[in-house]
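Notebook entry, structure prediction.
Reason for the run: the old model in the group folder had no record of what sequence produced it. Starting over properly, with the input documented here first.
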Amino acid sequence: MYKLMLSLFLFFFLKATAVCNSQQITFSGKNVPLEKVFAVIKQQTGYVFFHRNEDMAAAKPVTVTFNNTPLETALKMMLKDQPLRYSLQGNTVVISRKTSPVQQGSEQPAIDNLQGKVVNEKGEPIPGATVQVKGTGRGTATNVNGAFTLTNVPENAVLVVSALGLKSKEITLSPGQNNITVTLEGDTEALGEVVVVGYGQVRKSDLTGSVASIPVGEIKKVAVTSLDQALQGRAAGVQVTQNSGAPGASTTIRIRGGNSIQGDNEPLYVIDGIPFKNAGVSTGSAFNVLSTLNPADIESINILKDASSTAIYGSRGANGVVIITTKRGKAGKSIINFDTYYGTQNVRRKYPVLNASEYAQLVNEANTNDGLPAVYTPDQVAAFGKGTDWQDEILRTAPIANYQLSVSGGDEKTQYALSAGYFTQQGIIKG
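New structure, fully documented this time:
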């Protein structure tokens, strides 16, 4: 029985091959499109051609001469120099694109296991830095120790290393290099996109709470005696009012109005991570604690306005939080800065009042209108003259001067920043 089935299979196979070879093609043409030749073959043999239009777009016209040529021989002749191949499936000829063979040794050499570390200018590891193979979607991030691992990285590949607040760097790998250390430098231009909130930092675009950043460059344009005066008119929803006209007097700051029923509506100040309140305001003292902080030493000022951004400070932040970061020393050459200015202050406009003679004339006119005799004689009125201008006696042109000296620098392990300032301001009212 098995022998019979094998015989029948060979019989049908040989019969199908004979049918294919018995299909004879007769055609002659010069620079004829392939699809036209396919149509002629279909008409003469009944075979159907199946192909994709994008595959046929790469086909070239052919010049052929068939004279009772078998079907497979004709197909081989037509597709000899074409990027196409054929296969027979029943009475259907399937045309498809050739696959380019992979040549031995054509693969680009690769680094099996690339290890590296990302550090800052001080040599400290940078966790969370992004390491990506340029031009590809492959990449990774550094761990808490700043280390990373990439596998099967092409030799001579370019790695793009980036981290928040630091300048991105591109590293070109060398053949056989399997261990690298990348040092990222600080990017001062990107600091404007980072806001200090609570114990850390966050991008402005990711911030959900209401935060205002005060440009330090704007503070330097105005001669201010203290930090709180520097905030005046710089942020929406922040009202700064000076309590008295005394030089260095305390101010009242309200962030989005009064929020406390206890009477203390002053915000919380956090200077370099240390929180405190300006007690001089609530106790009625004329001394302003904030005036002890040199405005020239300030690196950044951020004001947290709403509950979501001040939540980390608890009830102390109910009236808003002012976060202040002072300048730090940086590794490199020592930098010496000296800033100074000198100016004068005076009243913008005095009250318009009468002098002595004008006042005597006014008194006489008032009595005359009331039917009473004049109080002063013309000789007395003339003798009074201008009299004493008590505003001139009280007010004066007061000097204001500021001198600031700072020195900063250091190396990779130790940085320093020293500053000293002398500020003097006299009041426009004598005494």
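Summary: The first helix runs from residue 2 to 22.
The old model has been moved to the deprecated folder.
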